[in-house]
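In the design runs reported in the main text, the only information available to the sequence generator was the tokenized backbone. The following block is the verbatim input for one such run; it is reproduced so that readers can re-run the procedure and compare outputs position by position.
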């Protein structure tokens, strides 16, 4: 189903204009247990919330769960750098080379944006903690500059679970 969805997304985006303002983030979730975290790289067009691309990367558990995760499931490799590079390669066909790319302040994003979109402007926003665990879209404070991305992810999650 995942491969079918990616093909449909590629067909959908093929005849649309290049995106000029996009949002990017790696959203963290897990597969069946918090000891097996995954990162979902997602890029959306800001004005329309059109999904331009996504991928999923395994990552090692952090904090208190790290030791439990290794003991129970073995060492998990961090696929995020490789998957992020793959996603940005794919986005070169869908995003204008002079686009405005918005993200949170994750220090790792800059090098991917500069490598794949050297003429683009990168606008960073301070990340904010969620109000309630599991409800990452509901922020403690008002305006969320990455709302289109966070809301798109919440909608996708709801449709997959529903």
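Verbatim output:
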């Amino acid at each position: 189903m995942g491969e079918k969805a990616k093909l449909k997304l590629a067909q959908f985006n093929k005849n649309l204009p290049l995106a000029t303002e996009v949002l990017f983030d790696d959203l963290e979730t897990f597969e069946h247990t918090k000891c097996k975290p995954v990162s979902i790289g997602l890029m959306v067009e800001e004005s329309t919330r059109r999904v331009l691309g996504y991928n999923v990367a395994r990552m090692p558990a952090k904090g208190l769960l790290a030791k439990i995760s290794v003991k129970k499931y073995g060492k998990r490799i961090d696929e995020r750098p490789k998957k992020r590079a793959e996603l940005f390669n794919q986005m070169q066909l869908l995003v204008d080379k002079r686009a405005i790319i918005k993200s949170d302040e994750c220090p790792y994003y800059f090098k991917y944006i500069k490598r794949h979109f050297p003429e683009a402007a990168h606008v960073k926003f301070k990340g904010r903690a969620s109000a309630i665990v599991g409800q990452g879209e509901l922020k403690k404070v008002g305006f969320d500059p990455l709302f289109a991305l966070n809301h798109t992810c919440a909608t996708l999650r709801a449709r997959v679970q529903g």
